[in-house]
Amino acid sequence: MTQSSKVEQVREPQWAGTSPVTLTLADLVAGQRGIVVGFDGKGSELGRRLTAFGLVRGTEITVDRTAPMGNPRAYTLLGYRLSLRNEDARSVLLRIE
């Protein structure tokens, strides 16, 4: 699956506006950054947990590193490092500028 077909599959939230590209957090590569625009809605418990970690609309997040087998990955946001499984990272929608 190409990156452009992944973009077409992501549902953009109503309040995300007109962004150049919307991807999930799991789609980013090391060193790439994005701005959180919302969650895909697959479970309110996960959304509440991620919000408590600071993943709220407008937060800038950067991929720092990936584990040798590709999962989990380390992200930097709000001055700290957060590790997430790719399964959870797919729920976070980002705007790439």
Outline the biggest β-sheet: 6 strands, antiparallel
- What gross morphology would you assign? globular
* Count of individual helical segments: 3
Distance between the termini: 22 Å
- Low-pLDDT windows of residues: 3-16
Major sheet strand order: 1-6-2-3-4-5
The tally of strands reads 6
The level of helicity is: 10-25%
Q: DSSP strand (E) fraction? A: 25-35%
CA-based gyration radius: 12 Å
**Strand pairing plus helix content: what structural class?**
alpha+beta
Q: Round the mean pLDDT to the nearest integer and report it.
A: 80
Q: How would you spell out the order of helices and strands?
A: HEEHEEEHE
Secondary structure elements and pairings:
Blueprint: H1 3-9, E1 21-24, E2 33-39, H2 44-52, E3 60-66, E4 73-77, E5 80-84, H3 86-89, E6 92-96
Antiparallel strand pairs: 1-6, 2-3, 2-6, 3-4, 4-5
Question: Care to describe what's here?
Answer:
By secondary structure, the chain is of the alpha+beta class. Helix content is 21%, strand content 34%. The chain is built from three helices and six strands, in the order αββαβββαβ. A six-stranded antiparallel beta sheet has the order 1-6-2-3-4-5. The two termini are 22 Å apart. Mean pLDDT is 80; it is low at 3-16.
